[in-house]
Amino acid sequence: MIRTPVLVGLGAMVPPRVVDNEELSQRLDTDDHWIRTRTGITRRHWAGPGTATGDLAVTAAERALRSAGGGPVDMLILATSTPDHPMPATAPGVAARLGLGPIAAFDVSVACAGFVYALATAAGAIAAGIAERVVVVGADIWSTRLNPQDRTTAVIFGDGAGAMVLRAGAPDEPGALAGFDLGGDGTFKDLALVPGGGSRGRSEPDGAGKPDGTGEPDGMGEAGGIGEADEYVTMRGKEIFTHAVHRMGESSAQLLKKIGWSASDIDWVAAHQANVRILHTVAGLLGIDRARVLIHLDRVGNTSAASIPLALTDAAAHGRLAPGQRVLMTAFGGGLSWGSAALTWPPIQVSDVAA
């Protein structure tokens, strides 16, 4: 029998603090209308002092395990680009706090595409017989990496975590993941970047990690210079938009062809929640009605690796997802990186609503 990952549990978590567009417009050159019309976001959740990525990941995983009815776990994979520390990985601490024992636990860092990559990694471990039951978590606290004066990033990102529990099963079971498509192109790495904090910056005393290695500010805006500004995320929004639409559309089409599904077979698209215009454009490229695209970013913003499981948890908790429906997941992030996955929705109980 082909060992296939089957979804059996789902959970999510966002911090309690709500930051609406009005609050941001009081200190940025923007307003609610500008933000909503360009992104579709009305509010987002930001973590408060003392809350780290691992804290959100623990709660989301606890809820996913409760949704799955408990049971032993062999592996935990955490997709994040905002780990608690540069070293060690955040996942082992999350597994320990969950009381999962001395299991394999590690981080996957693929920016906003991280959750799809983590799902594919879990699928490989299950197919190879390395694990029977895997917790996959996507969690990020990007509010700690935002330049408070940069409206191109400060209005977009929110904090959150989402988790799935997968078990080994058969390909014809409800909840079975039908396939994956992954891709990346490092020649465009500077389009979305945190310049500082890594070995590149520390190895160049004059450059402090500038993308071009010259020591001159590159894409940093008014923040510029060295030091704290290098820890902020920078984005070239228009170029990111173009690549996101193209890559998610292409990846989704390739996946559907690979598994023998057509666009008309798709009941729901759970795409990375970056921008509502991106979501609608991708749906249009695939020939899928935009009414079948799950939208959660209006309430939580771009939650990076957490966005797909957050959107699915919200839809499941509100009864929008029904057993037997076919769901397409697709994501795009820095790297550049992208990926898609598909599954048939299982009979699953989700009671915790994130936002």
Polypeptide structure, described:
The chain has 355 residues and is α/β, with parallel strands linked by helices. The protein has 11 helices and 13 strands. The protein has helices at 21-25, 32-39, 53-67, 91-97, 114-127, 151-154, 199-202, 237-259, 276-286, 297-300, 307-317; strands at residues 4-13, 18-20, 43-45, 75-79, 104-108, 133-140, 160-169, 177-184, 192-193, 234-235, 268-271, 326-333, 337-344. The strands form 4 sheets. The chain has a 5-stranded mixed beta sheet, sandwiched between helices. Strands 8-13-12-11 form a 4-stranded mixed beta sheet, sandwiched between helices.
Write the layout of secondary structure elements.
Blueprint: E1 4-13, E2 18-20, H1 21-25, H2 32-39, E3 43-45, H3 53-67, E4 75-79, H4 91-97, E5 104-108, H5 114-127, E6 133-140, H6 151-154, E7 160-169, E8 177-184, E9 192-193, H7 199-202, E10 234-235, H8 237-259, E11 268-271, H9 276-286, H10 297-300, H11 307-317, E12 326-333, E13 337-344
Parallel strand pairs: 4-5, 4-6, 11-12
Antiparallel strand pairs: 1-7, 2-3, 6-7, 8-13, 9-10, 12-13
Domain Beta-ketoacyl-[acyl-carrier-protein] synthase III N-terminal: 106-186
Pfam families: ACP_syn_III, ACP_syn_III_C
Catalytic activity: malonyl-[ACP] + acetyl-CoA + H(+) = 3-oxobutanoyl-[ACP] + CO2 + CoA
